[in-house]
Amino acid sequence: MPILPTERDPRLITVRRGGTLTDDHHRLLAEWALQCAEHVLHLFEADRPDDDRPRQAIAVGRAWIRGEVPMKVAHSEAFQANAAARGMPAPVKFAALSAGQAVAVAHVAAHDLGAAAYAIRAVGASVPSAEAAHAQAAERQWQRERLPGAVRALVLDDQRRRSAICWNVFDD
Predict the structure, then answer these.
(1) Which of 57, 102, 140, 160 is spaced 20 to 30 Å from 152 by Cα?
(2) Domain that holds residue 142
């Protein structure tokens, strides 16, 4: 299931690519996505303590924000985190995919919701099914409390627009 819309929102495309997203706001989206992924990283690391690919992806994402690595390096790191997800149980897999989506924000800002959505799914999959909805709501609230003010309205609007292609995890 694709988590990126077929028609891209120009507010999530950088100015140099013809959209309206500033570099500062792009970095804010990336940091928020990385926080979302980092918040559930323990679910991956508890099961796979010797596999540092998702943690490394998060570190590279932060290095991209600081201007220490080019976008292409960050983008390629997403594939490593995604590869760590293969064959893993749901919470472990979703935590790794969250990290992959978070570092991919350097390439496409709209991956921010992918990081958040996979983090919510990871939390929901980590508890008994009767507790999943409550756990997901708590994670969604945690994420929203960390949204930077400068991009808050944009992200919340994007969550409303794309919730259906993000497994409806952004529905209140």
Answers:
(1) 57
(2) 29-166
